[in-house]
Amino acid sequence: MRLVICDGNRILSEALADALKVRDDELSAVAVSAADECIAAVGSYRPDVCVLDVHLPEIDDGLHAIREICSRFPDTAVVVAGDASDPGTLAKARKLGIIGFLAKSRSVSGIADALHRIASGQPVFDPVPHTASHRDPPFVLTPREEEVLRRIAVGQNTRQMAHEMNIATSTLRTYVKNVFAKIGVHTRLEAAAFARRANLLDAIPSPRLPPQDQQNILPSAYQGDDERGSP
Questions:
Q1: Are the C-beta atoms of residues 55 and 89 closer than 8 Å to each other?
Q2: Is residue 121 located within the same domain as residue 152?
Q3: Pseudo-torsion of CA 64, 55, 53, 229, nearest 10°?
Q4: Is there a domain that residue 132 lies in?
Q5: Average pLDDT over residues 126-131
């Protein structure tokens, strides 16, 4: 089976591709991280299945990719993988022609089994809770914790956050641990992905970054021990 896997975070897409290839040595996968890159990969690689996160960095990129792939490459089955925090967007994706939705709670083996079923022409849609809503998260962040989550999501490290928030590094680490506990993640990478997928960033004030910092922070966003909030 041939796959194209697209997630807004390339580390996550590559990790899933590698895990699936370990699980099934007859499976080959290409990992990408943007809508246009995904469309191009499907066009050149002609996979059996394209697995993508509908919430790519630009607001409509996921739906745009689905629309383009379903119309231009009908032999490729399109599957959305992620959470059920935005049923409205998932409903739009179904209208565009996806034939599967795989919840992020699935194991790698569960994803592999579902993809084989989808590749054979069988739709697979995991249940979407009727109460799911990205506007009503099952936790409450304080304003400071919201700011920390926003800064994590844009790639700031501990020293940058503590300096710009004018707080001690130890205090910043406490905020990070509290955010992790409330949203149920263990690393900064997971926290950033959670914030983006749950569409929480629109409701969180953007950090006040000088233009040069906005250009320079992303390449080193998750290096070293800072990923787990302990620089």
A1: yes
A2: no
A3: 150
A4: no
A5: 67
Within this chain, do residues 34 and 68 fall inside the same structural domain, yes or no? yes
Report the b/e string of 123-160 with b at 16+ CB within 10 A: ebbbebeeeeebeebeeebeebbbbbbbbbbbbbbbeb
φ/ψ of residue 34, rounded to 5: -145, 155
Is the pTM of the predicted complex or chain greater than 0.85?
Answer: no
- Cite the DSSP H helix spans in the chain: 10-23, 35-45, 61-72, 87-96, 108-119, 143-153, 158-165, 169-183, 188-197, 211-216
List Cα–Cα distances, 110 to 20, 76, 102, in angstroms: 10, 20, 9
SS (H, E, C) 30-67: EEECCHHHHHHHHHHHCCCEEEECCCCCCCCHHHHHHH
Would residue 136 count as lying in a domain?
Answer: no
Strand order in the sheet with 124-125: 28-32, 2-6, 49-52, 77-82, 100-103, 124-125
Q: Report whether 1 contacts 27 (CB < 8 A).
A: yes
Least confident of 8-12, 193-197, 225-229: 225-229
> Is 184 found in the same domain as 113?
no
| pLDDT of amino acid 128 | 72
Domain that holds residue 184: 143-228
